[in-house]
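Re-run with default settings, no changes from the original entry. Doing this only to confirm the output is reproducible before filing.
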Amino acid sequence: MASMESLDELLQEELKDIYDAEKQLTKALPKLAKKATSEELKSALEEHLRQTEQHVERVEQAFELLELPARGKKCLGMQNLIREGEEMISEADDDAVRDAVMIASAQKVEHYEIASYGTVRTWASVLGKNDVAALFEETLEEEKEADKRLTEIAESFINQAAAERSEEAEQPRGRGAAARAARGATTTRTRPVAADRKRK
């Protein structure tokens, strides 16, 4: 990355980063929504996809207001968040657990975006670019609302359902361990008896 010597340059670079991040999300969210089992979660993800497409347009408006070409640079932060989420989701076999993982992954993305938009909004405001700051403020509030909705979905039923699945998965293992322990205890008790018979 080229050296930056002013807040204005920082704003421009961060805007390129956000632009690419939002574009990555427009590709990732449809895949996520298809894997969701909960209709409420699926609806929330589809709604956020529509918002994300609007966020891309707002970033393009910001480029225009700053008299810059709408050009992004690879956002490694978003790329890694999406990759991590995909890996975790692929490892979840149960539907409720998968939904819980999806919410966790989506919220990591939301928090990343909240931090990013909060930063560029502040920088734009400090630089006196209030029209640009207003665009970022609008997106920032939508990101916060999306995060809040995901929390409500998780806390209303998905986390509890995932916890119950975990308990059910643990029960057979517990019975198997108990059975093995019982067999081991029986074997331990019978061996000395056989040895006593030989001595007699």
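The first helix runs from residue 7 to 35. Confidence is low (pLDDT under 50) at residues 173-200.
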